[in-house]
Specification:
It is a single chain. The chain is α/β, with parallel strands linked by helices and about 525 residues long. The chain folds into 2 domains: about 325 residues, HUPs (Rossmann fold, 3-Layer(aba) Sandwich); about 150 residues, Isoleucyl-tRNA Synthetase, Domain 1, CATH 1.10.730.10. It contains 19 helices and 18 strands. Strands 1, 2, 3, 4, 8, 12 and 13 form a 7-stranded parallel beta sheet that branches. Strands 6-5-7-9 form a 4-stranded antiparallel beta sheet. Strands 15-14-16 form a 3-stranded mixed beta sheet, with helices on one face. Helix 15 packs antiparallel against helix 16 and helix 18 packs antiparallel against helix 19. It is elongated, with a radius of gyration of 28 Å. The structure holds 5'-O-[(L-methionyl)-sulphamoyl]adenosine.
C-alpha cells in the first residue's frame, strides 16, 4: 500500500473554528478519503496550536489559564470535525508531552550545531508602550504612538541561522517544481527568498506560555521557544519521531495543506529548520486562497465569521462539503455568499444529481420490477452516456493530483448531466408502453446505463459527500462490498456485477427554500 500523509495547519485555540478552518480541514478530508478509495495507506493529521502570546492574552481576558482556554476550545474543534465527518487519524495538541519533547530535542540539537545561537534584538524602545520601533518609524526621534522619548534597547534572543540555508532552499524549490503549489504562490515565495533570508529570532523572553528553551548558562533571562518553531514541528512530532515506524513510513510523503496566509512559514521557515536538523523536507506544500466576505478575508478579528454548525443546520453537511469545493477554485480566493450556496445545492445536488438518482431508480422499479435484472447485455452496449461517464471518472485522478477539486466535480457533473439528457432523449416512459421486444431491450439499456453512470459517479463522490453518496449507492443497488483493496475500481463501468437490484428512492437532497431578501 502506498503511504499518503496529509496535514492541515494546527489551529489556534483562541476561538472556535469558523468556515475558513472548516474549508482547509475539508480539503484534507476529501483528499484523504479519495486516497483511501485508491487503496493508499493514508495518514491524516490535524490538531491545535496552543502556545504563545495570542493564547496567553486571550486567556487573561477570559480570566482563565491558557490551558483551560485550550482545553475548552479544542473541544469545539473536535465537535465540528465530527459533525462534518472529518476522518483524521490523529489530532495533535502542542501542549502534549509527545510534542514538547520533540520540540526541545530539535532546539537542543540546533543549539549544539550552532544553527541556533544567542544574540540580541536591537531597536528603539518606548517603555510606557512596551513597543519596539525602527529608526524609520520614529517621529522626530520620539515614539510615533505617544510622542514620548525612546531608548535604545537590546533584548536577548536566540536566533536561527536561516541565512545559511538560502541557497539550498532556492535550489530545492527550483529542482522540485511540485514542492510549492500553486505556481503563482511559488513565485511569491521565490521572490521573498531572493530578497535574502535573514536569521530569525526563535525565542521570546516576554511570554510565559510556551515551551522553555533548553538550559543555557550563557542566557541571562528565561526564554520560551518561538511559537512557529514549536507549531511547525507538530508534523513530525505527531508521527512519533524519531523511533515510531509512522515517522519512517509517512514523513517522506508529507503534503501540507495551508492557507496562503501561512505559506511563508511552511515554505521558508519549516524547510530551513528541517535542513538544519538534517531531516527530509515535505513532498508538497499546497496553499489555498481565502474565503472572503465583501473581498475581505473571513476572520474572527474582522468579525465576519460564519459558524460551521449553523451552516450544517441550514444546508446539511454534504451540501456544505459540496458547495465549498465545487464553487471555489482551490488556490484562489472565493467570495462566500448565501445565495451561492442555495443556488449550488438546489441546482447541482437536488435537481441534477439527487433527482436523477431518484427518477432512474423509480423507473427501474416501475418498468423492470422488483427482482434482480440481468444486465450484462445492456452494459456491453454503447452510448454517449457510457463514454462520458467513463471519461469523467478517468479524468478525476489527474484533477485530484492537482488539487483541482472543482474540476473533478465539474467532470462528474458532466456525466450526471448526460444521464439526465439520456433519460429525456430516450423517453423510457414511451419505450415502456411499446410491446416490441427491441423497445423493451432498449428500455433496459437506457435505464441500466443511467444507473451505471450514476453508480460510478457516486463511488467517487464518497470522497466529497460521503453520507449522501453512500445513500445513493445503496439505492442504486451498488453499495461498496467490504474488503475491497482499492474501492475506486468499483467506479469502473460494470464493476458492480451482471445483475441489478435497486431500492425505492427517498430524496437525497431536498430542495432548499431560498429565503426572500428584502
Ligand atoms: N496556528 C497557526 C498555524 C500553525 S501550522 C504549523 C494558524 N492558525 S489559525 O487558526 O490562524 O489557522 C489559519 C488557517 O486557517 C489558514 O492557514 C487557513 O488554512 C484557515 N483559514 C482561516 N481563515 C480562512 C479563510 N477566511 N479562508 C480560508 N481559510 C482560512 O495560523
Amino acid at each position: 500500500m502506498k503511504p499518503f500523509y496529509i496535514t492541515t495547519p494546527i489551529y489556534y485555540v483562541t476561538d472556535a473554528p469558523h468556515i475558513g478552518h472548516l474549508y482547509t480541514s475539508l480539503a484534507a478530508d476529501i483528499m484523504s478519503r479519495y486516497h483511501r478509495l485508491k487503496g493508499d495507506n493514508v495518514w491524516f493529521l490535524t490538531g491545535t496550536d496552543e502556545h504563545g502570546q495570542k493564547i496567553q492574552k486571550k486567556a487573561k481576558e477570559n480570566n482563565e489559564t491558557p490551558q483551560e482556554l485550550a482545553d475548552r476550545v479544542v473541544e469545539r474543534y473536535r465537535k465540528a470535525w465530527t459533525r462534518y465527518e472529518i476522518t483524521y487519524n490523529d489530532f495533535i495538541r502542542t501542549t502534549e508531552e509527545r510534542h514538547k519533547t520533540v520540540v526541545v530535542s530539535f532546539v537542543d540539537k540546533l543549539m549544539k550545531s550552532g544553527d541556533i545561537y544567542l544574540g540580541g534584538y536591537e531597536g528603539w524602545y518606548c517603555i510606557p508602550d512596551e513597543a519596539y520601533w525602527t529608526e524609520a518609524q520614529l517621529k522626530d526621534g520620539k515614539c510615533p504612538d505617544c510622542g514620548r522619548p525612546v531608548e535604545w534597547l537590546t533584548e536577548e534572543s536566540y536566533f536561527f541561522k536561516m541565512s545559511a540555508y538560502e541557497k539550498r532552499l532556492l535550489e530545492h524549490i527550483e529542482k522540485n517544481p511540485g514542492f510549492i503549489q500553486p505556481e503563482s504562490r511559488k513565485n511569491e515565495v521565490l521572490g521573498f527568498i531572493r530578497q535574502g533570508l535573514r536569521d530569525i529570532s526563535v525565542s521570546r523572553t516576554t511570554i510565559t506560555w510556551g515551551i522553555p528553551m533548553p538550559k543555557d548558562p550563557k542566557a541571562t533571562k528565561e526564554h520560551k521557544i518561538y511559537v512557529w518553531f514549536d507549531a511547525l514541528s507538530n508534523y513530525v512530532s505527531a508521527l512519533g519521531y524519531p523511533n515510531d515506524s509512522k515517522y519512517t513510513t509517512f514523513w517522506p510523503e508529507a503534503i501540507h495543506i495551508v492557507g496562503k496566509d501561512i505559506l511563508r512559514f511552511h515554505a521558508v521557515y519549516w524547510p530551513t529548520f528541517l535542513m538544519a536538523l538534517g531531516l527530509p523536507l515535505p513532498k508538497r506544500i499546497v496553499a489555498h486562497g481565502w474565503l472572503t466576505d465583501g473581498a475581505r478575508k473571513i476572520s474572527k478579528s474582522l468579525g465576519n465569521v460564519v459558524d460551521p454548525f449553523a451552516l450544517a443546520d441550514t444546508y446539511g453537511v454534504d451540501g456544505v462539503r459540496y458547495f465549498l469545493f465545487r464553487e471555489f477554485v482551490f488556490g484562489l480566493d472565493g467570495e462566500y455568499t448565501q445565495d451561492l450556496v442555495y443556488a449550488r445545492i438546489n441546482a447541482d445536488l437536488a435537481n441534477d444529481y439527487g433527482n436523477c438518482v431518484s427518477r432512474t431508480c423509480s423507473m427501474i422499479i416501475k418498468y423492470l420490477g422488483t427482482s434482480p435484472v440481468e444486465i450484462s447485455k445492456a452494459l456491453s452496449a454503447h452510448s454517449e452516456l457510457k463514454r462520458v461517464a467513463q471519461a469523467a471518472v478517468a479524468a478525476v485522478d489527474g484533477e485530484m493530483e492537482q488539487f483541482a477539486y472543482h474540476k473533478a466535480l465539474e467532470n462528474l457533473w458532466r456525466a450526471v448531466g448526460e444521464a439526465n439528457r439520456h433519460i429525456e432523449s430516450n423517453a423510457p416512459w414511451t419505450l415502456a408502453k411499446s410491446q416490441k421486444p427491441e423497445d423493451r431491450e432498449r428500455l433496459i439499456e437506457v435505464l441500466v446505463h443511467c444507473r451505471e453512470a450514476l453508480r460510478m459517479v457516486s463511488v467517487i463522490l464518497l470522497a466529497f459527500i460521503p453520507e449522501s453518496a453512500r445513500k445513493a449507492l445503496d439505492t442504486l443497488g451498488g453499495a461498496l462490498p467490504d474488503g475491497l483493496a482499492a474501492p475506486v475500481q468499483f467506479a469502473q463501468w460494470g464493476a458492480a456485477g451482471s445483475t441489478m437490484l435497486v431500492k425505492t428512492p427517498t430524496p437525497l437532497f431536498p430542495r432548499l427554500e431560498v429565503p426572500k431578501t428584502k
